[in-house]
Amino acid sequence: MFYWFVFVFFSLLAIFANNRHVVSSNEHQLLSFNPLWWLIVLFFTFVIGMRHEIGGDWGSYLLYFESISSLPLTDSFDISADAGYVIINYISSYFNLGIYGVNLFCGFVFSLGLSIFCRSLPRPLLALACAIPYLFLVVSMGYSRQGVALGFAMIALVFLGREKKIMFCVFILLAALFHKTAISLLPIAALAGTKNKALSLLLVLLIGLIIYLTALSTSFDRLIEYYIRNEYKSQGAFIRLLILLVPSIILLVWPHRFNMPNSELVLWKTIAWISLSLLFLLIASEASTAIDRMALYLLPIQLVVFSYLPEIFGERGEARSWLVFLIICYYGLFMGIWLNYSVYVIYWLPYKNLLFI
Fold first, then answer.
1. pLDDT class for 43, splitting at 50, 70, 90?
2. What does the domain layout of the chain look like in residue ranges?
3. What pTM value is reported for the model?
């Protein structure tokens, strides 16, 4: 099966690859790309962008594209809608690229964001392998708008970990143009601030208010109506929060073992606490869809924790290799369960690509 081939291939790269040079706890990993990583970006973009009839929302996205293509931009553009996604659909229609043009753009943003995020970690190929069963397979190939929003959000989180809050806000705004729920990440900039939290909070709230008043207010009214008042259900919310549970607990129990700059450590501890809080909130609340949408943008914490894990608990090379292998097995088990028992997996099987049908 194609999905297993992708997972096994990148898992083998992760197992046999050397970890990056260990930087001191006050330094950040370099984000430079070598040819291998550009090939990875292109491969993921191709697989995501040229997929045919794959994903739970394929039919909905196709109908949306057809409705956009039949209207002039002045009629199809709605500032209260997902403006970025509207524009990409219109451009793809104008150049006769079809829904595949839209998906190629979404796939490229997701793939680039994921690669930049992984390159910020000590074991980038291990982080990439961990991303395949859910972030790549389910999100990017099933939910295009959330996928491109997550791609921008991962870049934003890298900037925030390096205390570049303005760039963080810029990329969160870009993410929100494709899925409004991404704006829920803005308060993290204030919560994770290591200096002058009052000023950080004021700045983030001001930027968020401007964004809300100029572009998102109507849409947010709809989100509140759909996700909160109507208490829409998201059946996968509990599973996705369980995915966050293990890495969140590891980080909060052993934070001193993570050899990362303090700004990054504070950020991921904040996200860990939010992840645990959402799990308790899900149990106490019936607004599972709203909680699920927020949890989507917290999923990168698993890549962070498991990328550091071999160095945290493995004192020798052999022990670290076994830890990498066990992490791969853990995600392989998760992928196997999803492929065999998910009620929605029929929308992903078999994988079809436009160039090979």
1. very high
2. 32-356
3. 0.87
